[in-house]
């Protein structure tokens, strides 16, 4: 009988589309750049309203990235996990979605 810790250590193999992975990494790089810009705005005592608008843009970009990752995970990782008979992957994904939301 597996312990809860052992169950959490079992992970399915991820099958990511290389082009989608590259797009997602590029998106996160742009988000990081945007956050660096917000940091400089704050360091330069720029208008708080402008900073808040930029934070809103980053939040939107992160939400878009999250949606892309969810779609990619469902399309590739979960599909392959089910084909491989790994039903625990679906439960892990449901838990991750609950935390994400």
Task: Describe, in plain words, how this protein is organized in 3D.
The protein is an all-alpha fold and about 100 residues long. The protein has four helices and no strands. The chain has helices spanning about 5-10, 20-45, 50-85, 90-100. The two termini are about 30 Å apart.
Give the topology, please.
Elements: H1 4-9, H2 18-43, H3 48-83, H4 88-100
Helix pairs in contact: 2-3, 3-4
Main sheet specs: none
Helix content: over 70%
Low-confidence stretches: 1-9
Average of the residue pLDDT scores: 87
Order of helices and strands: HHHH
- Can you count the helices? 4
Radius of gyration from the alpha-carbon trace, in angstroms? 18 Å
How would you describe the shape?
elongated
Oligomer: single chain
Number of DSSP E strands: 0
Strand content: under 5%
Report, as a whole number of angstroms, the end-to-end distance.
32 Å
Structural class: mainly alpha
Comma- or semicolon-separated keywords:
101 residues; mainly alpha; 4 helices
Summarize the structure.
The chain is an all-alpha fold and 101 residues long. The chain has four helices and no strands.
């Amino acid at each position: 009988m597996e312990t809860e810790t052992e169950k959490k250590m079992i992970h399915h193999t991820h099958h990511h589309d290389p082009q989608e992975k590259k797009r997602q990494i590029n998106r996160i790089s742009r988000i990081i750049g945007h956050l660096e810009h917000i940091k400089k705005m704050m360091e330069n005592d720029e208008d708080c309203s402008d900073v808040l608008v930029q934070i809103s843009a980053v939040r939107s970009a992160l939400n878009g990235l999250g949606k892309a990752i969810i779609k990619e995970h469902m399309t590739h990782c979960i599909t392959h996990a089910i084909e491989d008979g790994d039903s625990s992957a679906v439960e892990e994904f449901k838990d991750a979605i609950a935390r994400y939301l």
